[in-house]
Each structure stands twice: as structure tokens, then as C-alpha cells.
Specification:
The protein is of the alpha+beta class and about 270 residues long. Helix content is about 50%, strand content about 5%. A hairpin with a 4-residue loop joins strand 2 and strand 3.
């Protein structure tokens, strides 16, 4: 994956961002986002800035910071969808831990859906607008002509695309994938993930009848949460950069709400 910061560093308008530094690009873009999104993005980044230094001296608080940073990124995405009035986004709550965990699960599904069969995506950050675009090399579609090696296809909006389901199947590949998330073994797995995720914070802060709080967080697990947060923040920016309701995001919201709807009532009310 490559990153291009378009024409800005040379103008001195913003700090330069090195190639491949997604987080650096997001930090430059954050102050230009709507306030409801901006403050959650900046708070997410702040939590991760503090998490890793805490790890050697206070593992529980390091884990707490990382969990909160990931949730704040999910909250930023929820607020971005609501800012652009996406259908049914008003049913999502930034105060509900289960909703925020489900947002992450669905964001990972969107990422997997986009990446299927594509190996060399180019991500381009316009730090001034702010805006994120994606270029797909034609070589990913089997074009091998030497004079086409640098040619990329760029969707008008990165997430306003759908992959058609195979012949004989209804809907799209993503809608099919979300249906699987809300059924059978897949649903059991995601339900357990949401249960563990939504309860993780309390287990770090309060003693039980049997033991003191204890975290097993590692540098790798904190880095994984940080990567998840960068994905969520990036999707939030993509949602904000156009009034158009992008197809993948519309399907993702419907899939997310179906997963939440199928949870038992006791697991749907994990609010702060």
C-alpha cells in the first residue's frame, strides 16, 4: 500500500507526511473534521499516544487506554455517518459499547470485502480537503501490458462500490457476508467477541470476588487496536468527504443493525 499526500507539503501549508504514514496523515486531517467527529478522533489518538508508554509500568491502564482509543474511533465513525444522514445511522449510539464493538466488526468486514482479489491498492490522502481516495492498479485485473503498468482505476468515492454476488445468488457479496455474520456459527463468534469486548473495560478496573484486576495486554495487542482505530477513522473521513451515501457504507449499517437486533436484550444495553 502506498500513500501520496497531494501537493501540500511542498506548499508549506501543513506538516509533511512520509510515504506509508497513515496515522501521520490522519493527525493532519483531524482538526479539519466536524467537531463531533474531530474531538473523538483526537481523543482516540491521544489514548494511543499514552497507552504504549504505560505498558511497562501499568499494564491495566495501558490496556484501558487502548480499548478506549479503539472505542473513540468507532464513535467518530458513528458520528460521521450521522453527520451525513446515512439511512438508519440514527439508530447507532456512541454511548453503547456493544454498538461500538459491532461497528469495528463490520468495518473489518468492509475492509476484507474491498481487499478481496486486490493486492496493490494505492491510498491517496488529500490533507487540505481532507479527503481519501483509492487507486486500483489495472494489473490487479490481469492487465500486463508494459505501457499500462502505472495506470490505476480510481472510484469516484472509495466506498461507493459493490461486488456483485455470483450468478444465482441475490444481493451483493457484502450483503451476503453480513447475512453470514448474523447467522449460525458466525453469529455465535461475533456475539462472543462483542460480549468480551463490551465488558473488557470493567474487568480492568474492578476486582472480582476471586481476584484483582489483571491485564494480559501486550505491545502487539495494543498495536492491533491502534490499527483498528486508524481503519475506523479513515472510514469516517471517507464518509464525510461527500454528501453521497456510499453503497458499501449503506450495506454495512444495515448489516451492523441486523447483528445488534439479533443480540439478546441483555447484551444490547451495554451503555456508558
Amino acid at each position: 500500500m502506498s500513500i501520496c499526500d497531494r501537493e501540500l507539503a511542498s506548499e508549506g501549508a501543513v506538516p509533511s507526511v512520509q510515504d506509508g504514514d497513515i496515522e501521520g496523515a490522519l493527525r493532519v486531517m483531524a482538526p479539519k473534521l466536524p467537531r463531533a467527529v474531530r474531538f473523538r478522533v483526537e481523543n482516540s489518538l491521544r489514548h494511543f499516544d499514552l497507552a504504549m508508554p504505560l505498558l511497562p509500568i501499568d499494564r491495566e491502564m495501558a490496556s484501558f487506554r487502548a480499548i478506549t482509543g479503539e472505542e473513540e474511533a468507532a464513535a467518530a465513525l458513528i458520528k460521521a455517518l450521522q453527520f451525513r444522514s446515512y439511512p438508519h445511522a440514527d439508530r447507532l449510539s456512541v454511548k453503547d459499547h456493544t454498538h461500538k464493538a459491532a461497528v469495528l466488526a463490520c468495518a473489518l468486514a468492509v475492509k476484507a470485502n474491498m481487499a478481496t482479489g486486490l493486492k496493490n491498492l494505492r491510498v491517496m490522502f488529500d490533507l487540505k480537503d481532507p479527503r481519501i481516495d483509492v487507486g486500483i492498479p489495472v494489473s490487479d485485473f490481469g492487465v500486463t501490458s508494459p505501457h499500462m503498468k502505472d495506470v490505476v482505476l480510481q472510484p469516484v468515492e472509495p466506498l461507493d462500490i459493490v461486488r456483485a454476488a455470483p450468478p444465482g445468488e441475490d444481493g451483493t457479496v457484502l450483503s451476503r457476508d453480513f447475512k453470514k455474520l448474523a447467522e449460525g456459527a458466525k453469529f455465535a463468534q461475533i456475539r462472543e467477541m462483542l460480549r468480551v469486548h463490551s465488558n473488557a473495560r470493567n474487568k480492568l478496573l474492578y476486582a472480582s470476588n476471586k481476584s484483582l484486576p489483571r491485564s494480559r495486554a501486550t505491545a502487539q495487542s495494543i498495536s492491533a487496536r491502534r490499527s483498528n482505530a486508524m481503519l475506523l477513522i479513515s472510514i469516517a473521513i471517507v464518509a464525510l468527504q461527500t454528501d453521497r451515501h456510499q453503497a458499501l457504507l449503506c450495506e454495512a449499517i444495515d448489516g451492523l443493525l441486523e447483528v445488534v437486533r439479533r443480540l439478546p436484550l441483555s447484551e444490547r444495553s451495554s451503555s456508558t
